[in-house]
Amino acid sequence: MLKLTLALNLILATAYLFPHVSAASRIRPSAGSVIVRAGTTTSGEFQTVSGAVKSLPNDNSPTTIFIYPGTYAEQVVITRPGPLTIFGYTKNTKSYKSNTVTIQYGLSANTSGSDDASATLRITKANFTMYNVIVSNTFGRGSQALALSQSGDRAGFYACSFFGFQDTLRAERGRQVYLGGYIEGAVDFIFGRQGKAYFENNMIAVSSAGFITASGRSSDDDTSFVFNKNNISLTSTADSGTAGNVFLGRPWRNYAKVIFKNTIITSPLNPSVWSIWAPNQPNTDNIFFADFNSTGSGIQGAQRALFSTLLSAGQAGAYSISSAVGSDYATWVDTSYLS
């Protein structure tokens, strides 16, 4: 379990929706926030995140939940229609390394009946935002076991951490951004079918041989996974034999579309960089797997698969946060987390 560090700094005055102009502490809730505090006996506060979520009005009003430090062992499902922002207590809003709030559960898809049902955190609503929270599925190996299942529109995750092994993060549908966070896994650990997803300034950590992405895009639509300015590394406890057996992705469906730009790669990749889905089902007829300006020791000596594309600078310019989630992204994305 990631060790949690308490913070005792003063909080800066913040706006409700996009409160982070620069790195700051956040140690107190804003007025009107629903409060979650482990072991609390204070009237009006909640000991669990799910309890706080269930207390919210089932309407279109904007609401805020503030979570004090602790580990909350539970599944959380968020369905309410109105905008919801969850803030985790932190001494540095811009760094996932300072996160002190963990939501964790250990359910597998084999037991729950589906990928979605196994997720520690399930989002099925629009206009969801979360800052500085660790989300973990502690099941481990042997089955798909999700930390996050995200199928709402206009979802933003800022300086959050996601831990799992297989299928850690499901970007299933809707526009969504993951900025300044940490994502750990081994097999298909960033995946989804109809998600319009953008990832920037994240640490993507690989714990065993496998595939970082598994795009399930099944038609020539406007969905894609776009990665820009991320780092890919091995975890400190990665399995022996992981080096050289990691791929940027494999195509879950035949129109998979994944683009990596400006990636610093220290995890030694397989020289092919990209993989087929399986020997009897390659799924490469209509896919678009591409990278640009990939640097670092992990990409040296690459001999990219013939079904992939090494982009020129001009070609790479077509893939951005705008291409991934729309040119109106600034109306709902906290742009202070962009480079």
Automatic annotation (TrEMBL):
Question: Keywords on this record?
Answer: Aspartyl esterase, Cell wall biogenesis/degradation, Hydrolase, Secreted, Signal
Q: What pathway is it annotated to? A: Glycan metabolism; pectin degradation; 2-dehydro-3-deoxy-D-gluconate from pectin: step 1/5
Instruction: From the UniProt annotation, give the residues forming the signal peptide.
Output: 1-23
Domain (Pectinesterase catalytic) ranges = 41-310
Record family assignment? Belongs to the pectinesterase family.
The organism named in the record is Laccaria bicolor (strain S238N-H82 / ATCC MYA-4686) (Bicoloured deceiver)
Q: What class of enzyme is it?
A: hydrolase
The answer on whether this UniProt entry bears the keyword Cell wall biogenesis/degradation reads: yes
What protein am I looking at?
Pectinesterase
Q: Which GO terms describe its biological process?
A: cell wall modification; pectin catabolic process
- EC code: 3.1.1.11
Task: Report one GO cellular component.
Answer: extracellular region
| Compartment(s) | Secreted
The job of this chain, per UniProt, is described as: Involved in maceration and soft-rotting of plant tissue.
